[in-house]
Amino acid sequence: MSAMPVRRDSRRLEILAAFTAMVAERGYDGTNFGDLAAGLGMSKGTIVHHFGTKEQLLTELHETYMRRRLAEVRVVWDALADPAERLAAFLHLGVRYQVVDRTATVAFQREVRRFADAAGMETSRGLRDEYRGLVVGVLADGVAAGVFRPGDDRLRTLQVFGSVHWMWTWFDPAGSLPVAEVAASYVDTFLGGVLADPGRAAALADPSGAVVAVVDEALAAGRAADALDGGPGHPTS
Question: Which domains does the chain have, with CATH numbers?
Answer without folding.
Answer: 7-52 (1.10.10.60), 65-228 (1.10.357.10)
